[in-house]
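FORM 7B: Structural annotation worksheet

SECTION A. Query
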Amino acid sequence: MIVKEIENIFVKKVSKNKKQFPKPKITIDYREKNSLVISKLIKLGFETEIKELKIGDYIVKNTIIERKTVSDFISSMINQRLHQQIKDLQQCENKLLIIEGIEEQELYNDYDESFHNYAISQEAIRNRPAEFRGKLKKTKGLSSNAIRGFLLSITLKHKIPIIFTKNPEDTAKFISVLSNKKSTEISLNFNKKPKTKKEQLQFILEGFPGIGPKTSKKLLSEFKSVKNIINASEKELKKILGKKAEIVKKIIEEKYD
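SECTION B. Predicted structure
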């Protein structure tokens, strides 16, 4: 009885001292509205905002996330859509590619016909049925090694980290962990303290996702001051930032709760 009372006191003390921090709002592209990831995030206590995103599927703090299921990853390789998405994502300072469903579906298979399970366009099947019936190695441009090579290219050439998740719940948990990271752990511009006034101005701008040293210099050359950049319209920012202007403008206007 005494032991139980001590345990109860300890549990109460831990619960009392545990601080509850508000979870950040997660912005989600409207094309993800039917994804189970959203319901899992809501279940974890996150507030979500659905809107059109020019780059990525999720924005968590200052990180842009592109999410692909295994089948979507393969099909978007076939129709070349993924190549452009990777180029767009590469522009962002903090980015992440999530490939979801590796527990449910193989990413590649050298010797069986499981490639039929992927989202292959009907046109590709009609044009080259014999090749798809054979080994995956015979499928032009989509051999197992081609997929491996593309994954390496994403990581090494485009500098985009890749996370493999088991299912939507696992994806949501990764996003949850990411949301708890401090900005200094994610941002890449805190390695060197600025010395000159020009470096200080660049340092401020490089805190925004997708803005590196070259872009910050272009912005300052065009607008002359950080104040003018902040007050600039999205249309004006697009001249230099392109699609990233929407993300930057959203952060500028975001309220600190």
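SECTION C. Observations
DSSP finds 14 helices and six strands in the chain. The first strand starts at residue 26 and ends at 29.

SECTION D. Sign-off
Analyst initials: ____
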